[in-house]
Amino acid sequence: MSAASQDLYVAGCGTWLPPAMTTEQALADGHCERALATSTAMLAVAVADKEGPAQMAALAAEVALDRSGVDPARIALVLHSGLYFQGHALWAPASYVQRVAVGNRCPAIEVGQVSNGGMAALELARAYLLASPDREAALITTGDRMHLPGFDRWRSDPGTVYADGGTALVLSGREGFARLRSLVTVSEPRLEGMHRGGHPFGPPSVEDEPGTVDLGAHQRAYVAEAGSAFSVARVSAGQEAAITGALEAAGVTLADIGRVVLPHMGRRRLNAAFFSKWDIEPERTTWEFGRRTGHLGGGDPIAGFDHLVATRRIAPGELCLLVSVGAGFSWSCAVVELLEYPSWAAPSAAR
Q1: pTM for the complete prediction?
Q2: pLDDT score for 212
Q3: From the CB of residue 109, how many other CB atoms can be counted at a distance below 10 Å?
Q4: Terminus of the chain with fewer CB atoms < 10 Å: N or C?
């Protein structure tokens, strides 16, 4: 479909995942406890053997670019986001992705915002493309490898199991198979301490924090000082502002949304934050995909949307809500309309 003035499109997307470790195998190997497996209801998590974060991002980027049909030379911006250590100190992973997957000399920039990095990059890419009609397309990538001794994918953040993998999306101002109807990002900096707790500032270690990250301890320390009521209210208000803002900007309601891409959290967290609060049936969401993949940091929205399209679990004309949240806190939400099935979407996939 061709673009009208000010319209932006998803021209291509891709996901690269390493083999999955089942939860039963993790239990047998002592990586997690039965109580955690039960509360999260996770079935498997993608675990890389040797691939680095930027390598997986570049592999996903090659898929997304090939699917998009966009000449890599026409990419006007490369944005890469990683939740965790990218493999080298004082190094630019966005430039690696650009060299391997794109090969041109446009700006290549790394975006933070933790688990909201992918959507934060989408927000920036949108503004960059709309700022000049000469800018045809932008490439957004995410990549992470969560590993010990610095991070325990099963225990460092109780309630969420962290995966390894890369994702990529090509945003175009010309054409694409899906149209970006709206995108809203909301921040609440009063919550930044929730992922810092009482941990002191100091010189960095190789992976920025000595020992194994314990986000549960940080959260408990923050809530003990700020109060549970304040913390819960601020988190809830931020998520609500992003979701309602995106729906209003698109001129639709939640009832108009056919599919919802949610963060790959455990079931207990999803029940509290989305299923119960917003009365969203799990069957309308990417829960079944997420529980077999694990949390890809900022890549959850891209991987989830890629999965829906590739398996034809979303139909042309249907609206999809992409929901993302990251420490800081920041929340992003987008409404995307599928215009047509791309050629790479499996023709025989059942919805």
Answers
A1: 0.94
A2: 86
A3: 17
A4: C
| Architecture, CATH, for domain 181-338 | 3-Layer(aba) Sandwich (3.40)
Model confidence at 182: pLDDT above 80: yes
- CATH 3.60.15.10 assigned to 9-176: no
CA–CA distance, 25 with 136 (Å, rounded to integer): 46
Q: What pLDDT band is residue 225 in, cutting at 50, 70 and 90?
A: confident
User: Are 139 and 75 within 8 A, CB to CB?
Assistant: yes
Give the whole-angstrom CA distance, residue 139 versus residue 122: 9
Where do you find CATH 3.40.47.10 in the chain? Answer: 9-176, 181-338
